[in-house]
Amino acid sequence: MRETLSIKDLFQMVKKRIALIFIITSLITAITGIVSFFILSPVYQASTQILVNQSKESKELYNVGEIQTNIQLIETYGEIIKSPMLLEKVKDRLNLDLTNSALSEQINIVSKGNSQIFTIKVESSDPKLAVDVASAITDIFQEEIKALMNVNNVNVLSKATIGDNSSPIKPNPIMNMIQACFAGVIISIVLIFLLEFFDNTIKVESDIEEHLNMPMLGIVNFMDNKKKRK
After folding, report:
1. Is the alpha carbon torsion for 76, 81, 83, 89 positive or negative?
2. Which of 18, 43, 61, 192 is most deeply packed, by most CB within 10 A?
3. Bridge partners, 111 (sequence order)
4. What's the mean pLDDT in 181-202?
5. Rounded-to-integer distance, Cα 50 and Cα 120, Å
6. What does pTM read for this prediction?
7. Of the candidates 71, 91, 87, the residue with the CA atom closest to the CA atom of residue 144
8. 60-96 pLDDT, tens digit each
9. For range 208-213, the mean pLDDT
């Protein structure tokens, strides 16, 4: 293979093996679709929003210092929610046969910037279980935070729900197949380059000069031995 390739060479290389690109891309896309549609279990997500605000006893309508403190507390609250103590209480309430680690992996705490609102998201293959776990976490967290930190600045903005369409968040078969299609094209092109790089066979006249470093003196035309002279 030459050390430098022109755009024309690259185009001819791809064009010559276009069938290979199509086969590999189709195969990868089909396998991804089968796995996404028929093998992977759907995962549902329930979410609820928590507001960390000023205590009701506060006489000031807008206390910047207290609001900033509440924002900083969100990270601490997230750690408490995923703590073994709270997870054990959730498992006991719902009678779950899960380890703390497995249950913690299903829980995700999301907060945005300087917002006093954070979201508790729970993922599960059972949509009802996802809602039950999110609701139990919210209820137990509200009960425990008062005793643990002697504060009363947590309010639930929305109850745990799956969503209007109740569709799973993953897998997304269509998106997976689109990504697999792009991956198939890239893998095919890389494979083509590797095949060309390790291919030392002589196919055209220019390959003789390139591989043997010898000038070409002439060309012998193909002779058909079966063809008889008249």
Report:
1. positive
2. 192
3. 118
4. 86
5. 8
6. 0.70
7. 87
8. 545 566 667 777 888 899 999 999 999 999 999 999 9
9. 66
Distance CA 44, CA 37 (A): 15
Q: What amino acid is encoded at 170 in this protein?
A: K
Q: Tell me the one-letter amino acid at 161.
A: T
Please give the structure tokens belonging to residue 105: 């992996």
pLDDT of residue 49: 93
Contact status, residue 24 vs residue 187, Cβ threshold 8 Å: yes
The residue ranking higher by pLDDT, 14 or 212, is 14
Give yes or no for a cis peptide into 171 (omega within 30° of 0): yes
User: Residue 118 burial (CB < 10 Å; 0-12/13-18/19+)?
Assistant: buried
* Token pair for 26: 């189709």
Whether pLDDT at 31 is above 90: yes
Instruction: Name which of 97, 71, 103, 111 is nearest 85 in CA terms.
Output: 103
For 150, list phi and psi in degrees, rounded to 5.
Answer: 55, 45
